[in-house]
Amino acid sequence: MYSWEQNIRKVIPYTPGEQPKEKDIIKLNTNENPYPPAPGVAKAIKEFDTNSLRKYPDPLIGKLVHSIAVNYGMRDEEVFVGVGSDDVLATAFLTCFNSDKPIIFPDITYSFYDVWAKLFNIPFETKALDENFKIVTEDYLCDNGGVIFPNPNAPTGELMELDEVERIIAANRDVVVIVDEAYIDFGGTSAKSLIKKYDNLLVVQTYSKSRSLAGMRIGFMLGNEKLVKYINDVKYSYNSYTLSNLTIEAGVASMEDTAYFEECVKKVIDVREWTKVELKKRGFIFGDSKSNFIFAKSDRMSGNKLFEELKKRKIYVRHFSKPERIDDYLRISIGTAEEMKIFMEKLDEILGL
Ligand SMILES: *Cc1c(COP(=O)(O)O)cnc(C)c1O
């Protein structure tokens, strides 16, 4: 027996939602957008100069950084772009969370946070959500090594109002506070307006949900110039060429089409509100989600059973068996109006309604 295995770094990885191979399924399990990307994206890809792939892409991702900066009223120096917001968040963890004190985040939240914390040897502590799955602001006004939370939170969909977000940032001026706004476009107010006031704030967003480009892998961060510089230094110490030429072109085309973006977001919100009404009729219990999913439990069937019954009928939703407190909940992504209608029909069949 050789002993190389003793010196291997062993980790328990994040488990992403299933990406089933079958075509005829209704996929409501990974919060993807049911509508196609902006028409300009298809055009940019069709007209893409393949010969340009000979060369390395721009390590600064300058064209895309600029287009995001213009759209969000920031300067280029205040924008960092990565391979999805997972890459942006991982780089931010590596850069910003180097204290001996624990970083803090909610106990029920995006399950990648504790994976990165363990991977990078960052001590962490979780703060319990209240009985309505809301973040308790007071819990974040303590001594710590950094703060991260999604707003709206995932998988609950609960939104924190901007003045509460600001209370957390203001009370934590000696550490970096990251607000993960993966779902902010579906009904919340971004904390980006606070960046001018707080140099310890990072706002992270993604093209994966509201811009229908999960497969393209684009995420970005807005923050103080100095902080963005530190994060870029870590990126260049790790992997300089993160986005391909093609991805950059697609990202710019998407960012430029504000009208299409707003239309898709509105459709998702309208269908979400319809879905809430229909779920209520069927005895489901859930909060007032401001995201593109609803975190709901049935008053008559366990989460696991309902998950399996839906799967048998080719409808995929997300079920988390841990922690126990959310074991009966399903996270249902908002599909098209047609998909949600079929979803309701299948529910009626399963629940005998
Ligand atoms: C989806 C999601 C992300 C990651 O999205 P990317 O596809 O990597 O951009 C980050 N945070 C939360 C809370 C998410 O739900």
Q: What this model shows, in words?
A:
With 353 residues, this protein is of the alpha/beta class. It folds into two domains: 3-37 and 259-351, Aspartate Aminotransferase, domain 1; 39-257, Type I PLP-dependent aspartate aminotransferase-like (Major domain) (Aspartate Aminotransferase, domain 2, 3-Layer(aba) Sandwich), CATH 3.40.640. Helix content is 34%, strand content 15%. The protein has a seven-stranded mixed sheet with strand order 2-8-7-6-5-3-4, sandwiched between helices. Helix 2 (62-72) runs parallel beside helix 7 (245-256) and helix 3 (84-96) packs across helix 6. The model has no long low-confidence stretch (mean pLDDT 97). The structure holds pyridoxal-5'-phosphate.
Structure summarized in a few sentences:
The protein has 353 residues and is α/β, with parallel strands linked by helices. The protein is built from 10 helices and 12 strands.
